[in-house]
Amino acid sequence: MVPPDGVGSESDENLSADAVGASKLDELNKALWSYRRGMDRIEFLLGTQLLFSGAGRDDRLSVIADLMDETAMTIGSLARQRDIMLKAGWMQPPSLEQAADWSGEPWSTLLRGHHEWLVASVGWVHRLVEQCLTTMGATAHLAQQLADLVANASDYDDND
Question: Where are the domains of the chain?
Fold first, then answer.
């Protein structure tokens, strides 16, 4: 499939398993799985933070905040890695949906699955962040930083 107008490469090649190479798509798939684990960890930590806060266990909130900070750095690094892999010679990196459209199987199905999961995960994390902002004034700054990080996570899905 030919990329849509406005999304081209320096050599105008299609993004396909042949053009990018199965090994590069495998690397991207592995990076996306790592990214998903990081997002799962953020969800878990936000939920744990809400539980500890609700139970009056504020003594644990700093530990949770440290773990969230570490996870945020990991996710940021994985996001840069993902963007580099998606760009792969393209002037503008394609979204995961576009990459799925232009890739052969099994990559197309895998990339679509990652995209769908990430969209759902971003929504869930945003809801948790809103709960944190509502119930935990002391950690509102950290919650906002996580919201900004997650917003950046979804940027590659909507290359407008």
Answer: 20-155
> For helices 140-155 and 22-54, what crossing angle results, to 10°?
160
Which amino acid is residue 2, in one-letter code?
A: V
The reported pTM is 0.66
Which whole-number Å values give the CA distances from 114 to 14, 33, 62, 100, 135, in the listed order?
21, 8, 31, 10, 31
Dihedrals phi, psi of 142, to nearest 5 degrees: -65, -40
Three-class DSSP labels, 23-45: HHHHHHHHHHHHHHHHHHHHHHH
Please check whether residue 16 is in contact with residue 95, taking contact to mean a CB–CB distance below 8 angstroms: no
- Which alpha helices (DSSP H) does 4-139 contain, by range? 17-20, 22-54, 61-87, 96-102, 107-135
pLDDT digits (tens, 9 = 90+) for 47-98: 888 888 877 777 788 888 888 888 888 888 888 887 777 776 665 667 788 8
